[in-house]
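Practice problem: predict the structure.
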Amino acid sequence: MGRKGSRYSLEDKLYYIHLVEQGQTISGIERQYGVKYDQVKQWIERYQAVGIDGLKRRKVRQYSAEFKQEVVNLYLAGGTSYLQLAKQFDIPNNSVIYQWVNLYTSGKSFKTTRRARTMKTGRKTTQKERIEIAQWTIANDLDYSAAINQFQVSYGQVYAWVKKFKQGGPEALQDRRGKDKSGKAQLTETEKQELKVKALEARIAHLSKENEVLKKLKELERKDATRSSNIVPFKHSPKKP
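Answer:
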């Protein structure tokens, strides 16, 4: 027990509550068993409010992206904790909020944690589209999954276009006949300039997003360091007597 990510049974929860009732401090339990202070406190509050039913696992709730964002914003604004927010919004486990904050500061979406469904067969494209997609993917540090969602093409298409673009430049993305499948002539000077501008805009947007994520992450680390400065780390988690 006590390891990060562990799930606690009803018996476990009652055991730690019993230790507190016998005079042991929550801080002492955290040091000895590795169970988070806020977690034990939350169990005690639920037990005192509604008894054993408050300790039983609840049916998994579905939260909207807007709701998650609201909770994360409140946490990052400061002046509150995971436990307080869990209590305020009736969220069964405050570690859920930690996961939302971690997702947000990592620049990931709240909408889904599942891998996006990708196109297998791809779609027809012009040379200009292939160049734009290849440039966008490179500007975004080869984020193929994002490119698939952004342009609605297949993984195989993006991978091949990026590889060809790196090896031979825009000309490598012409079709085998030397012109686009649509029958259109090769790129005009205006189109070439447009593609250069789009590539630059994509890179600037990506770097700007990375900078914002780093700022949020540093702020979060600073807050976590302040909150945990008085916690004594434990080395072992003794079994229950």
